[in-house]
From TrEMBL:
Gene3D superfamilies: MFS general substrate transporter like domains, Multidrug resistance protein D. It is found in: Cell membrane. It holds the Pfam family MFS_1. It is a multi-pass membrane protein. SUPFAM superfamilies: MFS general substrate transporter (SSF103473). The keyword Transport applies. The keyword Transport applies. It comes from the Bacteria. Keywords: Cell membrane, Membrane, Transmembrane, Transmembrane helix, Transport. Residues 12-520 form the Major facilitator superfamily (MFS) profile domain. This is MFS-type transporter YusP. It comes from Neobacillus kokaensis. The chain crosses the membrane at residues 12-34, 46-65, 77-96, 102-123, 135-153, 165-186, 198-218, 230-249, 270-293, 305-323, 335-353, 359-382, 402-421, 498-518.
Amino acid sequence: MIHLTEKKKITIMIAIMVAMFFSAINQTIIGVAMPRIIAKLGGMDYYTWAITIYLLTTTVATILVGKLSDIYGRKPFILAGIGLFTIGAFLSGLSTDIFQLIAYRSITGFGAGVIMSTAFTAIGDLYLPRERARWTGLMSGIFGISSVLGPLVGGYVVDHLDWHWVFWIFLPLGIIAFIMIAVLFPKVPRREGETIDYLGSFFLTVTIVALLLAFSLAGEGPGKYAWTSWEILGLFGLTIIGLAAFIVTESKVKSPVLPLSLFKNDIVTMSNMAGFLLGAGMMGVMIYAPFFIQGVKGISPSGSGYIMMPMSIVMVLATAFAGQLMTKTGKYKGLAIAGLLTTAIGIYLLHFITIDTPIYLLIMYLCIVGIGLGASMPVFSLTVQNAVPLKQLGVASASSQLFRSLGSTIGIGILGTIMSSRMTSRLTEMYAGQSAGQSQLPPEQAKQFGELMNPQVLLDQPKLEQIQKQLPAELLPYAEKMIASVREVFSDALTSTFFASAIIMLAAVVIALFLRAVPLVSEKDHHHQLQKSEKPSGA
């Protein structure tokens, strides 16, 4: 595919970008709407599972499809990914409780993993690394554009329409993406001499699922287990066994699903480590910033979308700049370090926000995060692709997506535990001070006060206002005081996650310092190498 005409390449890239936009917009539209959806469906304690299960199935799909697409080509897999994503999104809109939503999100996540893995690898099929940087930046910009539009549309939908439409409004785009890929994307013959590594795929899946379940189930609250419980220790034990079996299998099979030789390349290893930490650290902002805006500041989902929008805009601009800079210079290390450090600073500043922080200051901090993420996100998949031969492009790209997805899922588990632990300890203190006065109220009013002490009610402003209207006038000052106390507890818990995210991002900066810098190969370099190799040895 690298020898196709430029016009044909651009046509294929347009089809890929439509597919990516369909996947991305269906994710970003949900971010701002999710707090309200959880408030409607109930189950705030299981909120992170709606995100975790998506990331878990995305991770498994990404790595399994990477090697298969190297053998069979990208086209059948990206079509299957679009189909699965569409089905999962449609079913998610039919959910009647949090557990159905979690189940349907797992289907959506598997489809997203297939789309992401094949789409980014397809860029490598079409372009050499230096030209690839421009398109990688544009593809990352697709996420940025969806991050601008998604929160705005998602906020509008939950404020003015039924929440189910959050999952359905962009489904026609999936049909368009499917048709474009089916018509425009070239089909390639199966690579001969390659076999499918079923055993390695099984052990890798066991390792990933057990590891992510351990981090997702550990913590406090319903459906959670203590870190030292036999359930969590058993999952970690299964992870170790699965990993050992996987390593033994991969060292013996002819066509391993994830060649261990990849990790002998220090650029691949360091890039994937940095990508892992980037995925973990950014979750603190992507998930919990809307919670702070809606739950602590008391702003509607639509307003939350407007507040998050500037961060998304500067992320798009920074991503485009990063792609152009890498294409022009062929260098990436300084950009990676600067981007990660800027992100760490922005997240650290978010640690200091309170209920009284002005909105303009919150937006300023989020924009700093956006600049850093935009500059650093395109780098690490590109460095991995630049460091491997063309025949390993799919599996190398999949490894990059794998480590970022692992980081995101494990990051959610760790950050969720930090938030829950902090909130539980603070709420326990508050309950002790409120229980005596609450016991003297009539049962109905005592129940209403009990609802006000649940942070989940802060995410559903209409319900909060309804409870306040039903209380006698003489109790309103006490109710307002209680709501203010719960907001303070929620704020403290959320900013604790920002602090932890900043530490994770600083660790990514340290890793990036040790990343070996190798110039990105351009098409000009490639032609020069071909000409040299074609010269007679005596010339």
